[in-house]
Design a protein that fits this description.
Aminopeptidase, five-stranded mixed beta sheet, globular, alpha+beta, 5 strands
């Protein structure tokens, strides 16, 4: 590693790189691959106007995108407040344990601050012990919950 990671917002021309990372992320989490057309759906969410619904941060190392985090503002009814929901955080194999994840998490926290939000929330599979150790190490607190999906179509 010649220089440290650069974490920044994704550029439109990098969406194919992000979709490739999302596909790797799905394999890593033993999930179905993304449906065709993801790049265009993300383009609308990330670069639509007036205010994008989704934010995507990428970690670049030596000119190559090696990780990403996506997040969006959500509302907690119980708290009566908005928070930043981090939907995804993923680093390409071989790039974990190098401080890149912490750089991405710092950038996600900065996004929350910029939006005036006091909290970031996310989830990870219970079997992902490496991620859980990482989140514990950076001071995150977990809650036991199950996530449900209900198709509406």
């Amino acid at each position: 590693m010649s220089g440290g990671p650069v974490v920044r917002r994704v550029r439109s021309e990098e969406l194919a790189d992000v979709v490739a990372l999302i596909t790797e992320h799905a394999v890593y989490e033993k999930a179905e691959p993304p449906a065709p057309g993801l790049e265009e759906r993300l383009r609308s969410l990330l670069f639509g106007s007036p205010e994008p619904r989704l934010r995507c941060l990428v970690a670049e190392l030596d000119g190559t995108v090696v990780g990403y985090a996506t997040c969006s503002a959500e509302v907690s009814t119980w708290d009566g407040a908005e928070y930043l929901h981090m939907d995804c955080l993923f680093l390409r194999d071989g790039h974990r344990g190098l401080g890149i994840g912490e750089s991405l998490m710092t950038a996600v926290r900065d996004e929350a601050r910029a939006l005036g939000l006091g909290q970031v929330q996310w989830q990870t599979p219970a079997w992902n012990e490496g991620a859980i150790r990482f989140y514990d190490r950076i001071g995150a607190v977990s809650k036991e919950k199950l996530r449900f999906f209900l198709p509406v179509g």
